[in-house]
Amino acid sequence: MRTTVELTEEQRAELLKLAAQRGMKGFSGLVQEAIDTYLESQASRASLIEAALAMKGSLKSDAAYEFEARTKSIRENWR
Known about the structure:
Blueprint: H1 9-21, H2 28-54, H3 61-76
């Protein structure tokens, strides 16, 4: 499917350079690869968030308070 994407001259030049290094005629393949990588990273991120949310309530009160205290201490001493 064709679409229009706005690029700076510098971005276009770099994409053409990378495409040439790979022996490609144009840079459409590079754009498709970048979009695939981005979409995969977003799916992974969503999975991690869902996994973290699924753990809600899995710590007992004492462990949760201890974890919170340790985290607060680490943040206060972070350089």
